[in-house]
Every structure is written in C-alpha cells, then in structure tokens.
Design a protein that fits this description.
310 residues, alpha+beta, Phosphorylase Kinase, domain 1, 2 domains, four-stranded mixed β-sheet, 9 helices, 11 strands
C-alpha cells in the first residue's frame, strides 16, 4: 500500500506537560474514520527509593499483566510501546467516562468491588512481572515520615496546634504499629496500582479503567483502598466511602478467592499510618507556607479519619 495516498489528518492537543512526562491527545480521521489516541512520553527520573519507576509503565505494558484483568477492571489498551535510552513512549487508548470528583458514592462502591475481584483473580494467577515496588513500600513510607523528629515531637508538645484528639489517634497508632504491621504482613499479597485516587480512575457503565501505572507494585490486601477513600476532594463523604468501600472490596475478593478467614484487613489502621505524618507535615511545616484553606482541608481529612474509627 502506498501510504502517501492514505487520506488521513490529525491534530495534537496537549493534556499534561511536566518535567519528566508529557501526555498528548491525538485526534484525527483516517480514510474517513475518526480516531483518538493518547501519546505518553516519559523521561528518565529518580523517585526516592524507586529508581526504575520512570520506565515501569513500559515494562508493564510489554509484560503479560493483562491476562489477570477482569471483564470490568482493566487498563487502557496499548497500541505501541518503545524505549530509547532514557525515554519511553506509549501509544494508548483514549479513555472516556466519569472520573475524579464526578464519581458518585455508588460508583466508589462498585469500583472497590471490581478492585476486589481483580485482586482475587490475581491471588489465583500471578504472572511473572519485573520492576515492581516491594510489598513493604507503605510500611517504609510510614517509618520514613515518622522518623522526622520535628514532626514526631510536634504532636507530643503541649503547644501543638493540631487538635488533641487527632494527636492522640496518631500517637496511639505509633505505640501499636509494630504489632499491627506484624498482622498486616500475614494478609494475602496482591498487585497494587499505587496511585489509586479518583483522577486516575475512569468509570463507564460498570467498567473500571485505570491510567498511570508508574507506582505499581506488590502490597498487602486492600492497600489501594487507602488512596481511593482519602485522596479525593469530597472530604465530607470520606466516612461513607470507608464504610461502603471496604465491605464491597472484600466481597469482590471473596467472589473469586477466599478471605473469609481474615480477622481484620487493617485498612483503617493503614489509613492512619499512611496519612497522619504526611498531613501534619502539610499543616505545620516550614518551607512551603500553606494558606488557611489548605490547612483546613488537611485538618478536615484527619478529622474524617478519626470519625472512621467511631
């Protein structure tokens, strides 16, 4: 075929421009048929404790991970993937659907259930995949933040500006964290997306599609729920998300695998450990002064986490 005679035209729309990544939407027609595709270019960069994250999506798309996706839970189809020295380029399916703050509570619940089914299937069929974060990533992140003496000491000071009941919640978790982690480490290990927060989730007619897999890795059962529940903009709904998403997730997992003997999935405990010092750092700390609204938002998140325990 003489490609010079193909009737085709296109335009490029920039979706995201960053120092290490560039995402473009290509829209056009070919022989009278419309098409859309996302072109994602990723340059080499180093994430603390995860030096190969820059090429992880390329490695995953050229692996056999897609064999464990379910009919209602997947990633965008990849049309072409290439790597050249210190840069990867992916040509991906353009995804449409409800995302971010437009997701309803019912959608959250269905997303959690679909995630559980995906993890249940993965429990029975684990593909051979290289370049994934270890299952200890969240534990290491918690210990890293807790090791910052200025933060650790701040919530224990009498002049701390964080409400006392929130400080108490964090301190009590610190005191029992070793025992809690010992129990978490007995949970089934699953593949986590690692950035499972609403803008990366697209929901369409009961189907879930996830973008941005550069933080993917192994984790203990339920870890992705933490971002789903606490990393959105609808803070007032966080407690309802928690109460509906955790049972939905475990129900989805049990449809395929078996978690019926689990005493506790320890999702609430991990929500505290993952968010506490990170949010205190946002509220209190030095180099990047926060606005009143930003501080209020972070304190509101901590308050909702406290209410989950009640």
């Amino acid at each position: 075929m003489d490609i010079s005679k193909i009737d085709a035209g296109y335009q490029i729309i920039e979706l995201k421009q960053g120092a290490v990544g560039h995402v473009e939407l290509v829209v056009g027609t070919c022989e009278g048929k419309p098409f859309k595709a996302v072109v994602k270019t990723q340059k080499k960069w180093k994430r603390h404790g995860d030096p190969n994250s820059w090429r992880r999506e390329y490695d995953l798309y050229t692996s056999n991970l897609d064999i464990v996706f379910t009919s209602d839970f997947r990633w965008p189809e990849c049309y072409h993937a290439e790597i050249n020295n210190d840069e990867t380029k992916l040509w991906l399916e353009y995804i449409e659907g409800v995302s971010a703050s437009d997701l309803t509570t019912e959608m959250y619940e269905n997303i959690a259930k679909a995630l559980g089914r995906f993890h249940g299937k993965l429990e029975k069929c684990i593909p051979q995949i290289d370049n994934l974060c270890s299952a200890d990533s969240m534990k290491n992140y918690y210990h890293y933040n807790r090791s910052k003496k200025e933060l650790f000491n701040y919530i224990r000071q009498s002049d701390c500006k964080i409400p006392a009941h929130l400080c108490k919640m964090i301190i009590e978790m610190d005191n029992k964290s070793d025992k809690v982690w010992a129990k978490i480490e007995k949970l089934p290990i699953v593949l986590r997306h690692g950035d499972f927060f609403p803008p990366n989730i697209f929901y369409d007619s009961g189907n879930v599609v996830l973008i941005d897999w550069d933080s993917a890795g192994w984790s203990y059962l339920g870890e992705d729920l933490i971002s789903l529940i606490t990393d959105g903009e609808n803070v007032d709904k966080m407690v309802e998300y928690y109460r509906r998403c955790v049972p939905a997730y475990l129900k989805g997992f049990n449809e395929i695998a078996d978690a019926s003997q689990l005493e506790n999935a320890y999702i609430y405990e991990r929500i505290i450990m993952h968010n506490s010092y990170r949010l205190i750092d946002n509220v209190n700390w030095r180099n990047q002064p926060k606005t009143h609204d930003e501080i209020k938002f972070d304190l509101d998140v901590l308050q909702k986490i406290y209410e989950m325990g009640n």
